[in-house]
Automatic annotation (TrEMBL):
Any one GO cellular component localisation term in the record: cell envelope
Pfam families assigned to the protein according to its UniProt record, in alphabetical order: Peripla_BP_4 (PF13407)
Coiled-coil annotated spans: none
PROSITE patterns in the cross-refs: PROKAR_LIPOPROTEIN
UniProt GO molecular function: carbohydrate binding
Compartments, record wording: Cell envelope
Protein's UniProt name: Monosaccharide ABC transporter substrate-binding protein (CUT2 family)
Keywords on record: Signal
Signal sequence residues: 1-23
Domain named Periplasmic binding protein: residues: 44-302
Length: 330
């Protein structure tokens, strides 16, 4: 029995290695001299910024997880600017960290700096957002949500909500940061699903940069230019919360006169859903820290990790938000 198990284990290891072959040699543990003591590892993390409640929760979770694991974390905040993130990554390369993790603000333009990391033998892990690099050997793994799926879930709620409507439904979309994976994919998934009912029309769509202020400003302008808005689809809670302020300032009732669907399910969003100001939220989990630590420990031990690790998440109606709120961690 023992022998059988070890054969199975060896087979699984081989399969794992074969599965990882496409991500090249960047899956090796840093240095190649066998595992380092966990306490000696140094990881550089280049964060997007502090644009939303989601991001704040994500930063805290990552910092807490590394502290708990006893792994040194060098952390930088790029203030939503790609050039700052590239600078941070270059400085991590220069400092000779063992691993680099980052959440790319936009999808494009990473090949040069990722090649520099590869040349320095520093494995890179993408957390939360994707890059569009064709060369997948530039990173070991992408840990984060399926944003297309999130867009589809939002679209499905809208489709169900208006299934009996014979009139046009005017939808406005508050997009995330232009060029960011979650903005591109959440728009795509949503559009695909609502295309099933020709009454559902996105009459205006503009970026609010994932911020509350951005969402408010764009919504104010849309309320002036669009005479009859039925529903707001915001790519995150913060922009939805900004839209609520604009809708109330215009003398309308959010959640009733204008329905609101958002993505994230952070505390303030869930509170607004419980209060009936938002109608539906698609969850996107910011709690990626423990999984990131696991990936790094596995690589350090010479193991392999899946090239794509998808976060599990759910959706919330008002009743579900009321029930979930007391136990919500963020
Ligand atoms: O939904 C939004 C944040 O990349 C998934 O970025 C993340 C998104 C999140 O600013 O609130």
């Amino acid at each position: 029995m023992k022998k059988l198990l070890s054969i199975v284990a060896a087979g699984a290891l081989l399969l794992g290695l074969a599965g990882c072959a496409s991500s090249g040699d960047s899956g090796d543990s840093a240095g190649g001299d066998g595992p380092k003591a966990v306490g000696d590892l140094v990881v550089g993390f280049a964060q997007v910024g502090a644009e939303s409640g989601w991001r704040t929760a994500n930063t805290k979770d990552i910092q807490d997880s590394f502290e708990e694991a006893g792994i040194e974390l060098k952390f930088s905040d790029a203030q939503q600017k790609q050039e700052n993130q590239i600078k941070a990554i270059r400085s991590y390369i220069q400092q000779g960290v063992d691993y680099i993790a980052f959440s790319p603000v936009v999808e494009t333009g990473w090949d040069a700096v990722l090649n520099e990391a590869k040349a320095a033998g520093i494995p890179v892990i993408l957390t939360d957002r994707a890059v569009d690099s064709k060369d997948t050997s530039l990173y070991v793994s992408f840990l984060g949500s399926d944003f297309i799926e999130e867009g589809k879930k939002a679209g499905q709620w809208v489709l169900d909500q208006y299934k009996d409507s014979t009139e046009p439904v005017n939808i406005v979309q508050l997009e995330g940061t232009t060029g960011a994976a979650p903005a591109i994919d959440r728009a795509e998934g949503f559009a695909e699903v609502i295309a099933d009912n020709e009454n559902l029309k996105v009459v205006a769509s503009q970026t609010g940069d994932f911020t509350r202020a951005g969402g408010k400003q764009v919504m104010e302008a849309m309320l002036k230019s669009q005479p009859d808005i039925d529903l707001v689809y915001a790519h995150n809670d913060d922009m939805g919360l900004g839209a609520i302020e604009a809708i109330e300032a215009a003398g309308l009732v959010p959640g009733k006169d204008i329905k609101i669907v958002t993505v994230d399910a952070v505390h303030d969003g869930m509170q607004a859903l419980a209060d009936g100001k938002i109608n539906f939220i698609v969850e996107c989990s910011p709690l990626l820290g423990a999984q990131l630590v696991d990936i790094i420990k596995t690589l350090n031990d010479g193991g392999t990790v899946e090239p794509r690790i998808i976060t599990e998440e759910t959706t919330f109606t008002q009743e579900q938000a009321i029930e979930a709120l007391p136990d919500r961690k963020y």
